[in-house]
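Its record is quoted verbatim for completeness.
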Amino acid sequence: MTLPDRICDPHHHLWDIVSSRYVLSSLLEDLTTVPQVKSTIFVECDAWYRPTGPEHLRSVGETEWVANCATDIITGIVAQTDLRLGSLTEESLDAHRDAAGDRLRGIRQRATWDPSHLIKDLPPHAGPQLLLDPRFRDGFSLLAQRGLTFDAWVYFPQLLDIVDLAQTFPETKIILNHLGGPIVLGPYLDRQVVLTQWRSLMSQVAKCPNVVLKIGGIGMPLYGQQWHKQDSQPTSQEVAVAWGEPIRWCIETFEPSRCMFESNFPVDRFSLDYVTVWATFDLISSDYSQSERDDLFCNTALKTYQLN
């Protein structure tokens, strides 16, 4: 198989971290290796925040920075704001819209949390059951009326919170990030047990028609592979062996019209280069029809984020 002529990469970040610098020039360099990628969507990552000013507006600095990037390849922006802040949430959403214009497609407020002390609580420290918090849901209710989606990043034990959220707000499109978080760390070290529990929960998520799945994150160390510790990165064939069955199960369960491949760069760059990510997806989807592959590589992302 060869990659489709048109790919939308619906999930990448840009940041200027000393140990892992990934700025616009880094993205453009990666895109030259997979020229079929014609458009991308930037997803918030706690970068480029305003150093001063009202706390609830500091994340607008990230949206401003990305919106000002001198490239048309980034066609969508998923910004960050705290949806628990009442009227301040509305002010923040308005400020992000002013900064990004039509490129603002959605909001992500990360909800990853686990009660185990073995799993590090990553900033911005969501705490337990963020998605069930009445204050969060008050803010969440504003998204659909503004034509915005919600990107959800949770660990697999939290997937029933996604089900509850989706059923309560059926008019809001929820994009579940990174295969629904099948983490292999802390108390969850048996990958086969994790995948069994994950499948059971994901089957319930798939019954919610307003949930769309991002298929990616497969290079993240917290998903249990040790590729980042090897002297050389794995081949696309090796990655396809490790992830082919779970990914195909997702595609069959959600259907291609509700699945989109994502690079999750530069996070997945710890294990894989950009070419390998897309070559892996090419191998895994090789038995699907052309129209199904068009959905997986591009059309689902364009439709979900309402992009041309």
In short: Strands lie at 7-12, 15-17, 20-22, 37-43, 74-79, 104-108, 149-152, 174-176, 211-215, 259-261. The first helix runs from residue 24 to 33. The CA atoms of residues 70 and 198 lie 40 Å apart. The chain has a mean pLDDT of 96.
